[in-house]
Design brief:
This protein is an all-alpha fold and 103 residues long. The chain is 83% helix and 0% strand.
Length: 103
Amino acid sequence: MNDSIYLSIQNSPRFKELVKKRERFAWILSAIMLGLYSGFILLIAYGPQVLGTRISAGSSITWGIPIGVGLIVSAFILTGIYVRRANGEFDDLNNAILKEAQQ
């Protein structure tokens, strides 16, 4: 591709829309993950008795294990949400931008 194609893509309203939507969505998901992780760290710092409490009287598993696993699983879920939107809406916008630039 030559410089004129790059400039036409950069100046395209669809490209600006794609960048804006993608950045906003990434920041939202990042804020969610940061909030979950910060909450977990604050729980460790200020409520360790909650994490150390056994799930049931005869169990050796404490609440810290499922909460920690839930935090890890939430990262995978948020990644999956991003990938699904990236492969759908963002790819569609990207293809439209490229098609527009090739004309």
